[in-house]
Description:
Blueprint: H1 3-36, E1 39-41, E2 47-49, H2 53-57, H3 62-92, H4 100-108, H5 115-125, H6 132-137, H7 151-179, H8 183-191, H9 196-207, H10 209-225, H11 231-236, H12 248-258, H13 262-287
Antiparallel strand pairs: 1-2
Helix pairs in contact: 1-13, 3-7, 3-10, 3-12, 4-7, 7-10, 8-9, 10-13, 12-13
Amino acid sequence: MTRKRREALAAYAFLAPDTIGLLIFVAIPMVLAFGVAFFKVDGFGNYQYVGLANYKLMAGDDQLWASLKVTAIYVVTFVPIAFVVSFALAMLVRNHFKGIGWVRSAFFLPNVVSLVVVGLIWQFLLVDKRGALSKILAPFGLGDVSFLGTPSLALGTYVVISVWFLMGYQMLVFLAGLKDVPKELEDAAQIDGAGSWQRFRYVIWPLLRPTSFFVVVNSTIGAVTGLQAFDLVFVLTKGGPARATSTVVLYIYEQAFTFNNMGYAAALTTVVVAILVVCTGLMFGVTRGGRFDED
Length: 295
């Protein structure tokens, strides 16, 4: 057996576990969901073929459109804020200083905790009038503010908690990207008289574009269908108050397991996945896979 063939077999062996996992837990459920979307399923084993009725039902479903609006607002606020915060943290802890390991660990610590636990902790901190945050803000006249009970504040609070949870993970991704920026290029730019901003603008940022693209795509998909789109919001508010935090994933869950509309939930799932695939494809196309204007 040639060396090239042995390397190819090794590559396939490394890829096999992920491929099998994706096939069992992603591809097959997606195919099944697409098939179930053409049936009326009550959750008790009764199937009735209804054709495209589940898809037609979406047009007049006001709560679905409200959930899509909440999800869209969440994505356009969470993704850029998380990007800026995590990138700033990465730049802050990029260079070595005493205790840097502890600082990096502190930023990453929320990400190792279960989202259910995170939700319970923040729910405890934000309890109306009796929570720790209410007591801290009381001297400023904000002790009576209900961050999770006020419709105009609940979604913003949800975004802030999501950023707090994920900033450590994205910080590590940016740190990995920064490690690949050749120090020689920065030193050469500095010798040529480039200031800090110019070194960032013309040396660091162009080389970080693929990493930035990965962070944006990953956080966008996570914001729509990730754990924080269901686990966190379910524990914090269950979609309330007045459905101000009802994401589309939570709405699909309610249709499937609260109202037993499995067929409709499956149809919703296929549409959400299709929207995500189109949006991700557009992002890849416009940015040329994160390489932007590179040849």
